[in-house]
Amino acid sequence: MTHSQSNPDHNTLVKAGPGWIWGLPLICLCLIFVIQLSGTNRSLFFLLNELAAGFGDKFWSLLTCLANGLVAFVLLLPWIHRKPQYIWAVLIASLLFTVFGQAIKHLTHLPRPPAVLSPDEFLLIGPALKQNAFPSGHASTAFILGGVFSLTTNKKWVRILLIFFASWVAFSRVAVGVHWPRDVIAGAILGWVFVWAGLKLTNCTKWGWTGIGQKILGILLLALCVLLFISYNTGYTNVLWEQRIFALIFFAIGIFEYLKIYKP
Hints:
This protein has helices spanning about 5, 20-40, 40-50, 55-65, 70-75, 85-110, 115, 135-150, 155-175, 180-200, 210-230, 240-260. The chain is an all-alpha fold. It has one domain (about 60-260).
């Protein structure tokens, strides 16, 4: 029996060990318990929201837009030729969050800061979202994106850098005033676990990212670029031109990478 035959999981995309896979969710769970038991969710929100004000509205608007679902998929377009399986894993993870994360949102139906706080008590950037606070969908998306590259690399410094960046993007939801710290941490847990599941399921669903599936996936992502440029509203109009420039750049890169699929 060969080594590949003796190891049924030899072709998994996940290269991180159990400590990396489960360490982050466990740390986040501990943080949630501490926040809940100490009753500091609101006071921590005020502290972090006030500290974030020094960076400026545009900075946080740009950062939080990176975790918008449509923008996140556009970010993945450059990998359509080299790593289409990563895009497919993100799609699976996003579908899992749509089912389970949205179910939790509507079951808990917890209010967001704009629903319970006076406008002069905190910094609000963008739309005043009020319902379905827990968990944060943007935080989940940030950790789905960061997780798909963190869990598939052997380089520890890359993992740390990606987790740090995903944390900043997730934190932007507190900075713009539409989520409590508890919501963001819960979203991070779900995003990380769902992308791990997505990576595990990717090899079982190769039809989605190989052959005609890869080509269809590329066309859909290019269409999202067009939508992002023409009419898509992230809710942050102060970065509309940056959004359009972003869409143009990634459309150009995407076309270049997509055409490589057809080369022998």
